TrEMBL record:
This is Short-chain dehydrogenase/reductase. Belongs to the short-chain dehydrogenases/reductases (SDR) family. The keyword Oxidoreductase applies. Keywords: Oxidoreductase. It comes from the Bacteria. It holds the Pfam family adh_short. The keyword Transmembrane helix does not apply.
């Protein structure tokens, strides 16, 4: 039986991926910051504690594997935040990078020796289409997802000779309730307040009508079971047409379309102090 690790498996995409892997016969280790508080555990998933913001927690998680052969790693755990670049607290940005990027990279590093020795492995990073199509007021989140994808895209050349495939799945809008948990950093007297409120309202509305976590999980399963993975899998938000447009149209046209859709980039309506 093959073994898969899915980080952030207690809800949303992580829960859907864990469910799909169990159904395919994998032994699944699902992680949560506190596995004892998982409200609706997936039958057949072995939940374990893992806090990716704590290097000690990562080390303890790896030690507890006790030389277990791991075939699949799905780096899914992460958080979302938004706010004008000018107003993002640096402590919050650093924490987001630790969780969304550095923790995932360190976990991957610690699992790679075993995969290399057994000459097989699949690593799937859960990114976001915002990494390919950045949106105003999402700069920190976009940067973390772009960084994670960059690690995977470059490492493909290093790992393939050892039978290890690494890729990124970029979902578009997903109806997982994430908008209600997104951390917002903006003051009521911010010069960005009106555009921020408008842009995030559009984003929230799109997410409410987005694809299901199960659809993303099917794409992850496709990447896990492919003989050779693609560098990138995009799903939702009309991904095929959108990525085709990005290849064919000038960047300024794409920016103009995004600005119009989300009501950003127009002339200021408030006087800047």
């Amino acid at each position: 039986m093959k073994t898969a690790i899915v980080t952030g498996a207690s809800s949303g995409i992580g829960r859907a991926v864990a469910t799909a892997l169990v159904a395919r016969g994998y032994r699944v280790l699902g992680t949560s910051r506190d596995s004892s508080t998982v409200a609706d555990p997936v039958p057949g998933v072995d939940y374990r504690d893992l806090d990716l913001t704590d290097r000690g927690s990562i080390a303890r998680f790896i030690h507890a594997l006790d030389d277990l052969a791991v075939d699949v790693l799905v780096n899914n755990a992460g958080e979302s935040q938004c706010g004008p670049l000018e107003e993002l607290p640096m402590g919050a940005v650093q924490r987001l990078f630790q969780l969304n990027v550095f923790g995932a990279v360190e976990l991957t590093q610690l699992l790679l020796p075993g995969m290399r020795q057994q000459r097989r492995g699949r690593i799937v990073n859960i990114g976001s289409m915002l990494a390919s199509f950045p949106l105003a007021y999402r700069s920190s989140y976009v940067a973390t997802k772009a960084a994670l994808a960059g690690f995977a895209t470059a490492a493909r050349y290093e790992l393939r000779p050892y039978g290890i495939e690494i890729t990124t799945v970029e979902p578009g809008s997903i109806a997982t309730g994430l908008s209600g948990r997104r951390t917002k950093y903006i003051s009521s007297d911010s010069p960005y307040f009106e555009q921020f409120t408008s842009a995030i309202a559009v984003l929230d509305a799109k997410e409410a009508q987005g694809i299901s976590a199960d659809e993303v999980a099917r794409t992850v399963l496709e990447a896990v079971e492919a003989e050779q993975t693609l560098p990138l899998y995009a799903v939702g938000s009309n991904a095929p047409a959108v990525f085709l447009a990005r290849r064919l149209l000038p960047r300024r046209v794409i920016e103009a379309v995004m600005a119009k859709k989300y009501g950003v980039g127009a002339a200021r309506t408030r006087r800047v102090p």
